[in-house]
Amino acid sequence: MEIKEKIKNLINANDVCLFMKGTPDAPQCGFSMAVSNALKHLKVNFNGINVLEDENLRQGIKEFSDWPTIPQLYIKSEFIGGCDIVKEMFEKGDLKTLLEEKKLI
Amino acid sequence: MALPIEEIKKLITSSIPDASIEIKDLMGDNNHYSAIIKSKMFNGLSRIDQHKLVYKSLKGRMGNELHALSIVTEEK
């Protein structure tokens, strides 16, 4: 399967999908950990996908979103942002509002 | 690998000429930065598109030799 298709399937199949380095329980990078912790704090179910296990995915996700860094958060198939944007949304309460609006928490 | 602050500023202003840029070297190691960037070019854009403008100005360095640059963008 082409990597783009694989990514599409992943973000369509998971309401909250986080492409990250490592896993939610064992993040391998501080930025991935920050986003994963924000989601845990809001008690939302999410699927953390470890891009370190798949080099194609690691490169593919950057091209998919035209975004050069990881982590990348998708909610209801929509790209929300990387660590800086998610952190800012979390601190302002916007992330919680968004998840509530989408009826995910 | 590291990129000095002046080099980062130069790259950003080459694509975003009116940018006011404040960069902090978080660890004093030329490798972990945090930047606040203000520009009229951000006006009316989504956060994602604002950050993309900054990433594009760094011409492929972001995610490579520039691992740790956290960005806050503001409209002018």
Description:
- The complex is a heterodimer of chains A (105) and B (76).
- With 105 residues, chain A is α+β, with helices and mostly antiparallel strands.
- Chain A has five helices and four strands, in the order αβαβαββαα.
- Chain A has a four-stranded mixed beta sheet.
- In chain A, helix 2 (30-41) runs parallel beside helix 4 (83-92).
- The N and C termini of chain A lie far apart (33 Å).
- In chain A, 35% of the residues are buried.
- The mean pLDDT of chain A is 97.
- By secondary structure, chain B is of the alpha+beta class.
- Chain B has a three-stranded mixed beta sheet.
- The radius of gyration of chain B is 12 Å and the shape is globular.
- Chain B starts with a helix and ends with a strand.
- The mean pLDDT of chain B is 93.
- Classes of the chains: A alpha+beta (105), B alpha+beta (76).
- The interface between A and B is medium-sized, with 14 and 12 residues.
Order of helices and strands of chain B, N to C?
HEEHE
Q: Which superfamily, in CATH terms, is the homologous superfamily of chain B?
A: BolA-like
CATH class categorisation of chain A = Alpha Beta
How much is the average pLDDT of chain A? Answer: 97
Strand order of the largest sheet of chain B: 1-2-3
- What CATH architecture of chain B do you see? 2-Layer Sandwich
DSSP strand tally of chain A: 4
The CATH class of chain B is Alpha Beta
Poorly predicted spans of chain A: none
Task: Tell me the major beta sheet of chain A.
Answer: 4 strands, mixed
* Low-confidence runs of at least 5 consecutive residues of chain B: none
N-end to C-end Cα span of chain A: 33 Å
Estimate nothing, just give the exact number of structural domains of chain B.
Answer: 1
CATH topology of chain A: Glutaredoxin
> Number of helical segments of chain B?
2
Major beta sheet, strand line-up of chain A: 2-1-3-4
Distance between the termini of chain B: 32 Å
Shape of chain B: globular
Tell me the radius of gyration of chain A: 13 Å
